[in-house]
Design goal:
Elements lengths: L1 E10 L2 E11 L4 E5 L6 H9 L6 E6 L2 E2 L4 H6 L1 E4 L11 H11 L4 H14 L15 H13 L5 E5 L7 H16 L3 E5 L3 H7 L2 E6 L2 E6 L1 H8 L4 H8 L5 H13 L1
Parallel strand pairs: 3-8, 3-9, 6-7, 7-8
Antiparallel strand pairs: 1-2, 1-4, 4-5, 9-10
Length: about 250
């Protein structure tokens, strides 16, 4: 359902992605992890059609996004890292707008809107303009909007931003439920424990190159460690954090 083949991307002459290749099957939650600047958001921009590769192919929902970007966009729901809402709208108005953009029947829009807002605990605030919403409340509306047209693919860039502990559990349960009915979830995050708990597949990227692609158990076994966080540290050369911290304490506060 997602296929990225030999993609190269440069921005302003600087190489960002180097021969990136991976695939995600139907009914799979794939965690896409890497340190800041690794190329995660650039990859999401490719998958959503916001950025064209210099070379290579990108398929989403079995559609080549370069050949038919509009059809590809019908087949995914997207939660960006820094989402923007029409905050003068109420969530009911916003979701109605999104549903109409996707050509949904008004009755279906209303039914799904009611169910999604109730799920996220927003029913009592459904007629309130989102100007007064907290970051977490806005994030819930963004997730609801991504789900509204029931797409076969979900693309999520740091979807837990601003969410409280209960909402995080809801997201995890929702992603697993989506996979169980055959949907494909591509979940970009630096929160490794969240990825470990929900993902069937983990793709590790560093400096624009894919380092590992496999199940959490396979990634940990390859690294010879017992947690995804430890494997990530080894793969991304971040396992000297303790040494760096000790040096900082000695130099700055000793």
């Amino acid at each position: 359902m997602i296929s990225v083949q030999h993609v190269q991307v440069s921005i302003d002459g600087a190489p960002i992605l180097h021969d990136v290749t991976f695939g995600v099957e139907r009914g799979t939650v794939a965690g896409y992890v890497g340190p800041n600047g690794a190329g995660k958001t650039t990859t999401l921009r490719l998958l959503t059609g916001a950025l064209k590769p210099d070379s290579g192919q990108v398929w989403v929902g079995d559609v080549n996004i370069a050949d038919d970007p509009l059809e590809a966009k019908r087949r995914f729901g997207y939660v960006p890292e820094h989402g923007h809402l029409y905050e003068s709208f109420t969530p009911v108005e916003y979701l109605a707008f999104i549903g109409r953009m996707h050509g949904l029947d008004e009755h279906l829009i209303n039914r799904r809107t009611d169910a999604l807002l109730a799920y996220w605990g927003l029913a009592d605030d459904a007629q309130q303009a989102m100007l007064s919403y907290s970051k977490g409340m806005k994030q819930k509306v963004l997730i609801a909007a991504a789900l509204l047209h029931d797409p076969p693919v979900l693309l999520l860039d740091e979807p837990l931003n601003g969410l409280d502990a209960h909402a995080v559990l809801q997201v995890r349960a929702l992603l697993r439920a989506q996979a169980e009915v055959g949907k494909t979830v591509f979940y970009s995050s630096h929160l490794l424990d969240a990825v470990e708990k929900v993902a069937d597949q983990v793709i590790v990227i560093r400096e624009g190159r894919i380092l590992r692609d496999g199940s959490p158990a396979e990634i940990m076994a390859d690294a010879g460690v017992g947690s995804l966080e430890s494997a990530f540290s080894r793969l991304t050369a971040a396992d000297d954090a303790a040494v760096q911290t000790e040096q900082l304490m000695a130099e700055a506060f000793g």
